[in-house]
């Protein structure tokens, strides 16, 4: 029994080594895999067969095997079966996406809805409907969804699947993962954290060095990526940029404070009542002075909060995402001017502001991407689990 | 030749393994060291002999060897020969300390001087005199100082030993390490970073979890310790708390910005012209209303900056050091009240403010401690280097 357990642990470790090599360097022949991993060819062949059976790898046909020139059959990571679900509850929309094991986004769904007007139960029921219909669509594409993550606009407790506080929704301690009751393992994470990971894996993240990704929504969050991983802080609550103090005597914020960045640069501060983002962008394109002035006010406040963030966090680059992506041409200039005025003398270099390459889907993509990372890091947990 | 190099590298690695075990778990017998490290008893005996010759280890006499009850001679890390020098240039003082290999502080020196009135050359010459006299004292105690670090009040380039900018001194791009020209390897680091490490190794740091250490001087810096290591940011400039924006339209700061924390809570903001810290503390003890009001103003501003720091960095605990240590009873209350008002609703727990256990010597202690860490991590570099 102990020996069997040890054998399973060893096999799980070896599966991860082989799938990791395919993910990083594939396609690879079995011989090249054996060389890269230090495993015997017999072991590699057996592990590859298991990965192919599980739909995680596939043969790509004959290739020349590097320098030796012998033809062989290469194997690559396959996206045709295993997939992950990324979901998001935000203040004025629900969203979801399905990403396959090769990190290709296969399905997107967004639903505009005022979640402030609904109870947590109704919002979660709405997300459940969206998720169930996406799982059905995924099955129609031959995809088996291994797990999901829900992005939430506030600090979460990842171990219990609970959002601790989402002031813009008026939620406190809502056990989202349990309440969702989906037929697959579901975790929760902070929306701004997942959006930063979305930029890292599906946008220009890998080229940016250490970056701070700013998610502008009705709330404003940020995620700091250091050496390719999220900086989460001691309790996972780091990056709450929206409640950085811009002006201590400023307007009251839903968090209980005053003068927080959200009150100057969040979606509600930028959009006149009744106008949507597309309407604002249209007015900006037409050069409407009040729209331009609103973006200048928001951009200057964002510049103050980002000055503070640079002083404390010292990133290489700052990525503006969420609503700040379509508003980038009008918001980034005032923000940069403020940062240069305040940081230019004490820093050799003021971090550049760049626009998100992912935009509105960043958080669900980051969530699904995180599930894919976990599967690739431990395919055995998925593959060796008792099949239902 | 290649084999000799390989042998040296192996020996250096094994020396580090043995010295690391003594540092963590000593005193240990040679037999226990062999068991703990997986090295043969012959190899351990030879390495221990080398460490004893180098003055890094010493026999502590016969002890019972754990469970087996056989008496043996234990070895422990020795502080009697190898030591490190910590130095600090700040706005109104120079400081130095010598710490031995067992992390016992052996010598302290502080010199009050207005470094704003002097040229960088003169300040560095003054620090050189202080260092040379401390090296002579150390030699008188039988200590051989292996290296030093200079703490500087601004962002530094550690690779070139240069302080990039120290606005409170009016310095830009001063090559401090080279200019100091001491007869030992000298590095530079940011004062606030080293003070955080000083608290970690010589204060209550290890018990605090992830903590933010605030260094109040004429400037205000902070160092974030995560998992026992400094969070430095992409360019080593993280933790510039003094230039966090408290109120964007506030008074002009030497950094080029306005309304920075330093202008509300730095030493110059707290002390009326001509008064020193001891005078202020005396007035506070006597209940002088203007002194109390000054600390309330400073504490509230500190509370705003720390609210922002908690939102972005999410530490477990915040340690107030430098001038905030003697002023803790008068500054911490207003700061905590501000933080609770602004963070209480969105955080399950607002980080506690605690007073530094190291105080004014934190930065030089952290610097010397960092040199000691390096020697213990690689004693071979010190021990195998050609002796002069």
Question: What does this molecule look like?
Answer:
2 copies of one chain form a homodimer. With 388 residues, chain A is of the alpha/beta class. Chain A folds into 3 domains: 76 residues, Arc Repressor Mutant, subunit A (Orthogonal Bundle), CATH 1.10.10; 135 residues, ATPase, nucleotide binding domain (Nucleotidyltransferase, domain 5), CATH 3.30.420; 154 residues, ATPase, nucleotide binding domain (Nucleotidyltransferase, domain 5, 2-Layer Sandwich). Chain A is built from 13 helices and 16 strands. In chain A, strands 6-5-4-7-11 form a 5-stranded mixed sheet. The longest helix of chain A is centred in the C-terminal third of the chain and has 25 residues. Chains A and B meet through helix 10 and helix 11 of A and helix 10 and helix 11 of B.
CATH class of the largest domain in chain A: Alpha Beta
The overall pLDDT average of chain A reads 92
Spans of chain A with pLDDT under 50 lasting ≥5 residues? none
Shape of chain A: globular
CATH architecture verdict of the largest domain in chain A: 2-Layer Sandwich
Number of helices of chain A: 13
Structural class of chain A: alpha/beta
CATH topology of the largest domain in chain A: Nucleotidyltransferase, domain 5
Q: How many domains of chain A?
A: 3
Instruction: Name the beta content range of chain A.
Output: 15-25%
End-to-end Cα distance of chain A: 23 Å
Instruction: Classify the oligomer.
Output: homodimer
Secondary structure tally: strands of chain A: 16
């Amino acid at each position: 029994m102990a020996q069997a357990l040890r054998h399973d642990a060893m096999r799980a470790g070896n599966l991860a080594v082989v799938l990791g090599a395919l993910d990083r360097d594939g396609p690879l022949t079995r011989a090249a895999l054996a060389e890269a991993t230090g495993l015997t060819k017999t072991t590699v062949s057996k592990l590859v067969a298991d990965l192919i059976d599980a739909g995680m790898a596939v043969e790509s046909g004959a290739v020349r095997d590097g320098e030796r020139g012998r033809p062989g059959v290469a194997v690559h990571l396959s996206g045709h079966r295993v997939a992950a679900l990324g979901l998001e509850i935000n203040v004025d929309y629900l969203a979801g996406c399905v990403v396959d094991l090769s990190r290709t986004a296969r399905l997107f769904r967004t639903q505009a809805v005022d979640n402030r007007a609904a109870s947590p139960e109704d919002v979660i029921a709405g997300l459940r409907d969206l998720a169930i219909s996406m799982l059905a669509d995924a099955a129609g594409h031959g995809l088996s969804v291994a797990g999901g993550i829900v992005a939430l606009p506030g600090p979460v407790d990842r171990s219990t699947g609970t959002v601790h506080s989402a002031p813009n929704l008026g939620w406190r301690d809502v056990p989202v993962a349990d309440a969702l009751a989906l037929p697959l393992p579901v975790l929760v994470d902070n929306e701004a954290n997942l959006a930063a990971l979305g930029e890292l894996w599906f946008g220009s993240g890998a080229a940016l060095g250490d970056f701070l990704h700013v998610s502008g929504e009705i709330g404003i969050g940020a995620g700091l990526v250091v050496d390719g991983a999220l900086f989460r802080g001691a309790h996972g609550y780091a990056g709450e940029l929206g409640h950085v103090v811009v002006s201590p005597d400023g307007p009251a914020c839903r968090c209980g404070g005053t003068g927080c960045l959200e009150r100057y640069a969040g979606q509600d501060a930028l959009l006149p009542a009744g106008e949507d983002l597309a309407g604002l962008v249209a007015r900006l394109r037409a050069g409407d002075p009040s729209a331009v002035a609103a973006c200048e006010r928001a951009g200057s406040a964002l510049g103050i909060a980002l000055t503070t963030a640079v002083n404390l966090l010292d990133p290489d680059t700052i990525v503006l995402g969420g609503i700040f992506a379509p508003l980038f041409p009008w918001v980034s200039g005032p923000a940069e001017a403020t940062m240069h005025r305040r940081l230019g003398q004490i820093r050799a270099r003021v971090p550049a502001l760049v626009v998100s390459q992912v935009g509105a889907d960043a958080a669900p993509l980051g969530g699904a991407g995180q599930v894919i990372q976990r599967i690739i890091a431990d395919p055995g947990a998925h593959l060796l689990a008792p099949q239902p």
